[in-house]
Amino acid sequence: MSVVYTTSEIFPSTEQVLAINQLLAQILKKECKNWCARQTEVKEANSDLEKIGFKYLDSGLHRVCYVSSDNRFVLKIDLVSTQNKYEIEASQRIPKILQSVVLLPIAFSSDFLWLVMPKAKTDKDLPIEKIHKLEDEICKFLSENGYFCEDVHHGNVGLFEDRAVIFDYGFNIGKRGE
Ligand SMILES: Nc1ncnc2c1ncn2[C@@H]1O[C@H](COP(=O)(O)OP(=O)(O)OP(=O)(O)O)[C@@H](O)[C@H]1O
Ligand SMILES: [Mg+2]
Question: If we measure between CA atoms, which residue out of 129, 122, 115 comes closest to residue 164?
Fold first, then answer.
């Protein structure tokens, strides 16, 4: 059964949510040449996010990610305003059976600029052989249940509560034959 988190567990102070929204609004209203420039802007906000309890973790092409001070949650800031939205929409379509291998967002802003997920152990915490095993487990499980995900690779999977999980899926997860 999936765990239900309360807002106060994710954001111990309500000012945090406000501060995140304000910070992002400031960054995103600036003109940026392209999204690499945007990524730099977001990363430069690291010290401001640290002040409100989120430390820089890692980034991909679309998102810059921060970890909460208790190491339980990841805040994903979307630079292109599509990936978080796709992920949230996908998570709402995902059938119960797949919820054991897909890490679901547990909070998000109404404009999808940020979302929060539980933190998994990743290729930074576990040996690469273990990560490859997790990839195989996820692909097998999805396929046995008639699904596929094109984005199952070492940077997108991890271990959460002793389960293999994917934490970056968006529009890349779907039902076979559709
Ligand atoms: N739930 C999580 N638990 C642990 N680490 C995470 C989590 N979500 C993201 N990360 C870390 O942040 C990185 C970037 O996140 P993510 O892959 O979701 O972003 P992306 O920009 O969509 O990636 P891509 O370049 O693959 O499109 C991941 O590779 C991983 O190291
Ligand atoms: Mg990724």
Answer: 122
Treating both helix axes as pointing N-terminal to C-terminal, what angle do 35-44 and 14-29 enclose, rounded to 10 degrees?
A: 140
Ligand nearest the Cα atom of residue 83: 1
Q: Does residue 68's CB lie within 6 angstroms of at least one atom of ligand 1?
A: no
Tell me the C-alpha distance between 128 and 111, whole Å.
Answer: 35
Residues whose CB is less than 8 angstroms from the CB of residue 163 and which lie 6 or more positions away in sequence, other chains included:
100, 101
pLDDT digits (tens, 9 = 90+) for 73-100: 999 988 777 899 999 999 998 899 999 9
From the CA of 123, give the closest atom in ligand 1. Answer: 31
Residue with tokens 């003109």: 31
pLDDT digits (tens, 9 = 90+) for 132-157: 999 999 999 999 999 988 889 999 99
Tell me if 16 CB under 6 Å of ligand 1. Answer: no
Residue 2 has pLDDT above 60, yes or no: no
- For residue 115, give the ligand nearest its CA: 1
